Amino acid sequence: MYIGLTGNYGMGKSFVLSVFKELGAEVLDSDEIVHHLLQDKKVISKVKKILGGQAENGHGALINKKIAQIIFNNNEIREKLEALLHPLVFHEMQEYLRKIKGKQRIVIVEVPLLFEGGYQGRFSRTITVYATQKTAIERLMNSGISRRNALKRLKAQLPIQTKKKRADYLIDNNGPKRKTRKQVKDIYEQLRKEMLTKE
Predict the structure, then answer these.
(1) 1-25+106-199: CATH, from 3.90.1150.10, 3.30.70.890, 3.30.1050.10, 3.40.50.300
(2) By C-alpha distance, which of 47, 40, 54 is closest to 82?
(3) 52 pLDDT exceeds 90?
């Protein structure tokens, strides 16, 4: 089963993904795939062309923090980068799935822009991790992002209420981690049962 995991910035997707991994699921993080793609010279060249030299250091290397600043302040550049990177990310995911084909697996894929990109049809089920905007902003600020930039990041995504309505499963990540773990475990067990009944 191929499961799409989403949510908004600061709402705890990465923590939930780590719990699924602990429980035995195969996990894929689209941000890690992007990081891997940005080691490819051809991809780097195309990214630099879109950014117009705005996110490079004195040696021509890309600076991730500058890229983030640019894309959250320029919708046109963000959309161009997404149009370049998203197909490459899904290609990498498909290659991974091809390698494990035939094995009994639940694969959880973290895709921040799952619903924004209309990618839900690629997955057997979808999960939205949610928290209040206040909680998300606090978490982002604790990670070193200013309140202003945290709000910009949240506004660049679909409202979390929209994502909650579109998902098959919901995980409330406002409370302590033990409560989140319990929800993840319950969903994982449901997915396992569903997979077994399909055999």
Answers:
(1) 3.40.50.300
(2) 47
(3) no
